[in-house]
Amino acid sequence: MTTIIAGHFQLQEQIDGARQALLEAGYPEDRISSFYVNQPGQHDMHALGGDRTLSPGAKDSPEGLAKGAATGGAIGAAIGAATVPLTGPAGPVVGGLLGAHVGSLYSFSHMKEKGEPEQGGENTVAPRKSGMLVAVALPDGDEDRVVQLLRRLGANDIERADGTIAGGDWKDFDPLSLPRRIA
């Protein structure tokens, strides 16, 4: 793995100009990568779309589902047992199933609402924005030179990463990783 410096641009012409400037500065073409970064949630990493297997806002739902189903099932079975003289032997079974279903709906109260702060979620780094990205794998000690070049060319959100660019492809780029921006 090597140090990679990347800068965001708005237009394809800016990317072309940045690639040309990096080539003229002596960086080999196979160590320069440029591509479009989709907005968060649109990286199509799963067959059904999206970026994550579980929704971050629903991560506590399974715990709520288990608690609600167990509590609701027990209460429903108790009520069903109390109504055995009226309902017969099916009362506790039906009461338990109905109570478990109603109790499982309790899990929705464990979901985080949109805009609600998450406990322990004091993330101060904004996610990577969508747009064109140009990145270059650096030899040791060349970081300041590339950062200055990208700034001069109008790059936004210049970031540092560790990874591998080979054949012009940033092979281990993770669009979900939080960028380490350079001030």
From TrEMBL:
InterPro entries: Gly-zipper. It holds the Pfam family Gly-zipper_Omp. Residues 68-106 form the Glycine zipper domain. This is Glycine zipper domain-containing protein. It comes from Pseudoduganella albidiflava.
